[in-house]
Amino acid sequence: MKRFLILFALALPLSIWAQYLLPNEEIIYSFETKNGKKMTLVKDKKDEYIQYRFGNKNKVEMEFPSARTKDSWKQFSYRSYHRGGGKQNAGMDLNYLSFANNGYQYQVYKSYYAEEESYSTGITVTDAKGKETDIAGIYKTIKGCLCDLDQSTLIVKDDTGL
C-alpha cells in the first residue's frame, strides 16, 4: 500500500503539468506567473505546429490556436533586438512573440537591460479599446528561450522595429 501511495504522489504532479506538454512536443518558452498561472509555448518535435497554452496547475484555460496544424505558425509573429557591449553600450536583449485571439492582442516578452541589470518576462494583453494588462512572469522559472525563434523559417518575423 505504501508503494502505491508513493508512486501516486510522484505521478500526480507529472499528470497535472502533463497537459502543458504532450509527448510529441517540446517547450520553446515557458514560465510561471506571479499570480500562480503558467504560460507554455510549445511546438511539435517535427515542427508540425506551434501552440500557446496558459492556465493554472489544474487546467489549461487557453490554447491558441485551437487547431494543431502547420498553419499555426502563420498566426504568430516574432521580433527581437540585440545589442551587446554591456553597461557602457546600454546593451540589451529584447524578444517579443505576438498573436491576436478573440479581439485581444497578446505579446509574450523577455527582456534584459544591461544598464540596470534588469530582467523581465511576462505577457501583455491589450483589449480592443487599447487597455493593456501586464501579467508578470517569474524570471527564475523560465524554461527554453524565445530567442530560438530567431532561427525558425516557419514563424512570421516582424521587422518593423521595436
Please specify the SSE layout and strand pairing.
Blueprint: H1 2-18, E1 25-32, E2 38-44, E3 50-55, E4 60-64, E5 77-83, E6 92-101, E7 104-113, E8 118-126, E9 132-136, E10 143-144, E11 156-157
Parallel strand pairs: 5-11
Antiparallel strand pairs: 1-2, 1-10, 2-3, 3-4, 5-6, 6-7, 7-8, 8-9
Write up what this structure looks like.
- This protein is mainly β and 162 residues long.
- It contains one helix and eleven strands; from the N terminus they run H-E-E-E-E-E-E-E-E-E-E-E.
- The strands form two sheets. It has a six-stranded mixed sheet with strand order 9-8-7-6-5-11, with no helix packed on it.
Question: Short description, anyone?
Answer:
This protein is mainly β and 162 residues long. The chain is built from one helix and eleven strands, in the order αβββββββββββ.
Keyword list:
162 residues; mainly beta; five-stranded antiparallel β-sheet
Count helical runs: 1
Q: Which structural category do the helix and sheet elements fall into?
A: mainly beta
The largest sheet has its strands arranged as 9-8-7-6-5-11
Query: Helix coverage percent of residues?
Result: 10-25%
Strand content: 35-45%
Report the average pLDDT across residues.
88
Radius of gyration: 17 Å
The first-to-last residue Cα distance is 58 Å
Uncertain regions: pLDDT < 50 for 5+ in a row?
Answer: 4-18
- Approximate shape: globular
Order of helices and strands: HEEEEEEEEEEE
User: Largest sheet at a glance?
Assistant: 6 strands, mixed
Number of strands: 11
